[in-house]
Amino acid sequence: MSATLNDRVNILGVGVSVLDVSTAVETVNSFLHSGKKGYICVTGMHGIMEAQTDPEFRQIQNNSLITTPDGIPTVWIGHLMGHKNMKQVAGPNFMMEVCAAAAKNGSKHFLYGGKPGVAELLKKTLTERFPGLQIVGTYTPPFRPLNAEEEAELFRMLQESGADVLWCGISTPKQERFMAKYIDRLPVKLMIGVGAAFDINSGLLKDSPEWAKRCGLQWFHRLCQEPRRLWRRYLLNIPRFVYLYMLQWVGLRSYELDLPKRSAHSLARS
């Protein structure tokens, strides 16, 4: 089967890619040999709602190599639109599957994000689980934009390490803005924004059980673990998301899906 990576479902103007985990991993492996540079967004309801008041952020997601369906509601919408092969590609699972493949194909990975100590813990966890995986560096950024000295330090670390992939775990929308800003300035081929995957895959947070994911209750599991940080995100965004998508579904509101016609981040797969 042949398809282009601009196969996307329009959800309130954000193009969510039609794929599953295996296709997403194949995309990463193919792209690393393409000679191009790009970034991957892992987007659920939160990222889509952030885009409603920020056209620049919406365009960042639409300019990605792929924007994976992080939450089950995005998958359900894809099924409604006739894409029955679309499945959830959540950040933590996606990261683990890419790392499993990387242990065999030799690609080099760099961890950027997390609170102090988290990236190092994640490196230890991943390399123990996947013997042969090359995690060639970690960087814990400040809770603000990088200054010139920090940018130079990060560039030097990436250059010396020879990293192919930079995993970005600084939460949405900061990580997407970072990737869009730096993908053409830093010496890596691919950036992937996975947010809470740093904490989940290092064991600091519990991942949602499979039944919660299948029922679309992954947000509730996260809320129970981090109520102070996440209550506003979920309790305010969920009703608004449902309302706006119903307007789109019945045709009372339309959203233009602005995808680049000839993107440097697009790639054919077969």
Summarize the model shown.
The chain has 12 helices and 10 strands. The chain has 270 residues and is α/β, with parallel strands linked by helices.
What topology emerges from the helices and strands here?
Blueprint: E1 3-4, E2 8-11, E3 14-17, H1 21-31, E4 38-43, H2 45-50, H3 55-62, E5 66-69, H4 72-80, H5 91-105, E6 108-113, H6 118-129, E7 134-139, H7 148-161, E8 165-169, H8 174-182, E9 190-193, H9 197-201, H10 210-214, H11 218-225, H12 227-250, E10 268-269
Parallel strand pairs: 4-5, 4-9, 6-7, 6-8, 8-9
Antiparallel strand pairs: 1-10, 2-3
Helix pairs in contact: 1-5, 11-12
What would you say this structure looks like, in words?
Helices cover 47% and strands 16% of the residues. With 270 residues, the protein is an alpha/beta fold. A 6-stranded parallel β-sheet has the order 5-4-9-8-6-7, with helices on both faces. It has a two-stranded antiparallel ribbon with strand order 1-10. α8 links the parallel β8 and β9. α1 (21-31) packs across α5 (91-105) and α11 runs antiparallel to α12. The radius of gyration is 18 Å and the shape is globular.
Supply the key terms:
alpha/beta, two-stranded antiparallel ribbon, globular, six-stranded parallel beta sheet, disordered C terminus, 270 residues
Largest sheet: 6 strands, parallel
The helix content is 40-55%
Element-by-element helix/strand order: EEEHEHHEHHEHEHEHEHHHHE
Mean pLDDT across all amino acids = 89
Number of helices: 12
- Strand fraction: 15-25%
